TrEMBL record, chain A:
<dbReference type="InterPro" id="IPR001662">
    <property type="entry name" value="EF1B_G_C"/>
</dbReference>
<feature type="domain" description="EF-1-gamma C-terminal">
    <location>
        <begin position="263"/>
        <end position="422"/>
    </location>
</feature>
<dbReference type="InterPro" id="IPR050802">
    <property type="entry name" value="EF-GSTs"/>
</dbReference>
<protein>
    <recommendedName>
        <fullName>Elongation factor 1-gamma</fullName>
    </recommendedName>
</protein>
<dbReference type="Pfam" id="PF00043">
    <property type="entry name" value="GST_C"/>
</dbReference>
<feature type="compositionally biased region" description="Acidic residues">
    <location>
        <begin position="248"/>
        <end position="257"/>
    </location>
</feature>
<dbReference type="GO" id="GO:0005634">
    <property type="term" value="C:nucleus"/>
</dbReference>
<dbReference type="InterPro" id="IPR040079">
    <property type="entry name" value="Glutathione_S-Trfase"/>
</dbReference>
<feature type="domain" description="GST N-terminal">
    <location>
        <begin position="3"/>
        <end position="84"/>
    </location>
</feature>
TrEMBL record, chain B:
<feature type="domain" description="GST C-terminal">
    <location>
        <begin position="89"/>
        <end position="220"/>
    </location>
</feature>
<dbReference type="InterPro" id="IPR040079">
    <property type="entry name" value="Glutathione_S-Trfase"/>
</dbReference>
<dbReference type="InterPro" id="IPR004046">
    <property type="entry name" value="GST_C"/>
</dbReference>
<dbReference type="InterPro" id="IPR010987">
    <property type="entry name" value="Glutathione-S-Trfase_C-like"/>
</dbReference>
<dbReference type="InterPro" id="IPR050802">
    <property type="entry name" value="EF-GSTs"/>
</dbReference>
<feature type="domain" description="GST N-terminal">
    <location>
        <begin position="3"/>
        <end position="84"/>
    </location>
</feature>
<dbReference type="Pfam" id="PF14497">
    <property type="entry name" value="GST_C_3"/>
</dbReference>
<dbReference type="InterPro" id="IPR004045">
    <property type="entry name" value="Glutathione_S-Trfase_N"/>
</dbReference>
<dbReference type="GO" id="GO:0005737">
    <property type="term" value="C:cytoplasm"/>
</dbReference>
Amino acid sequence: MAPIGKLYSVPSMNQTTIIKATAAAAGVEFEEPEYKHYEDNKKPDFLAKFPHGKIPALECANGLNLTEGAAIARYIASIPPNSGLLGGTLEDAALVDQYVHFAESEIHLCTEFIYLMLNGYMPYNKAIHTTMTERQIRGFNSLETILLTRTYLVGERLTLADITVASVIFLAVSYTLDAPLRAKYPNILRHLDLIINQPKLKGVFGQPTFVEKAAQYTPPAKEKKEKEPKQPAPAQAPKKEKPKKAEEDEEEEESLVPEEPKAKNPLDLLPKSTFNLEDWKRAYSNKDTRGPGGSLEWFYENFDREGFSVYRVDFKYNEELTLVFMSSNQIGGFFNRLEASRKYLFGSIGVLGEANNSIIAGALILRGQDVKPVVEVAPDYESYIYRKLDLENAEDKAFFEGALAWDLEIDGKKWQDGKNVSWRFFF
Amino acid sequence: MTPIGKLYGHPRQPQTKVILSAAIISGLEIDLPPFEFGVTNKSPEFTQKFPLAKIPAFEDNEGFKLVEGTAIARYVSSLVPDASLLGRNAKENAQIDQWVHFAETEILIPSNNIYTGIVMKYLPGFSEEQHKHYQKGVERSLKFLEDYLASRPSGLLVNGDLTLADITLAAAVQRAGQTVCGVKEREQVYPRVFAHFAKVINDERIKHVFGEPGFVDEPLAFRDE
């Protein structure tokens, strides 16, 4: 079948996974043009088609321009006459709708909200964190009950309901649905396993990462600098908390979060550094990368080469790589497995080249001078080669900047699809 | 006419209004049994049928059960294709989906969070920053909508007739008018958005479902208490 159109999105979004899985299950193809969020969605030709400026956005060959992830997935599912993805009867179609909506509002909304707060995109608030956690658990409980007596959610075959639920659970198990909780939901896990391993969907999801303990709030470091002047920002821009409020939250956290029994990470014992990784991540996500006032400029002004180092990373087995989005998922999986080192690591790694002729490469900014203690938390860290970069060296510097600006080119292979450690769930 | 089933919901809940309107436009009847929040949805009869115990919840005469407001609204709208609530072809269908989802996520949810936080005072952790964040989101979306409606000769979202998208948007915009949009905003900043609202709720068939708009004169302000 000819591609039905072009999808503008970023791989890390939950909606993108659902759309891709739906397309794979339906046997529908679409193109994924190069897209850089915060840049391309401000350009006149994009806004002419999609005035609201949000992604995912689908530009169809038949003239339809569609937004809202759920609507796009549904439209794709409806294209082939017998895909069965939307159920066979009006009642089954309604049930598919019901589960899609349930997955979004009762489960994914909570994961996303918690993520936004824990990563500084919205002011952290313990009461909201608790409310969202409880709401999500209520959703998990219901889902477990439903799946007690069902293999697939609607009828006896794969539908958009299964794809959507599996997708939000796939994310949740890496973030909020931790080991003690998962022990209560064998049927949710069974369903997840069934769906992500469907032959047609192989390669869309990759391997799930199972978090041991649900993500917790880390108050910002006390040696944080003066508030930066407010920047014109997109809706998801982080807001710095008022200093007083941050202190109150910190006090609460110390008394409520139990002491971790295991030994302190040696990376925490390094001498204090003036370079704050969280500030860097915010600068990187708020500013353009290159140019005056950009994040690279900020980086060179603030970087502490004693306390931190910059590395190049290359995948060892590039000849195995096939489709670009599958390689992109592999990077995502690698980042998921690096979760425990999130405090010590920033990465910008991408797929360069094209299907069956690509490489995975990128740059890391990490705490300390040695890469191993930071990345060995990931069981597959030895699948990559690490080489320390010297930013005084012109070639190394160009590589580093290209990896962060997503315009890196190696041996004629151009950057296609990338992931940043701090942006796993959305743009 | 026999009602098609029972809808457990509250007449002032936006999702319930949308479902009832969809039924009426389709020429269908739905029973709305008396519902007491905190009582009915905690009773064993209810929770056995609807384990998540949220409203709206729908059960037809054959025992078919459905939850999630937009899913129920869509199902009801699908029962009478001639009513064209879901559009006349695949493209219109997709566009209706798009607007329903947009109305819910970009307008109803943030407006409702402000409503629940300030008016109902029932949103733990609701803060001034949250308020500003939601308000900003709603304003961005209303501006986009205002510009889009300028291109619509019928003043409706998808084609020349009332669809599920228009009804859903009206319910969402009603909440915006109760929280984020005062007189000045409704008349001067988003006149087309509120003209669309008026067009929908003045439809004789569903006027009584939407009731009094309950709009504010000034946008609600956050007050630390």
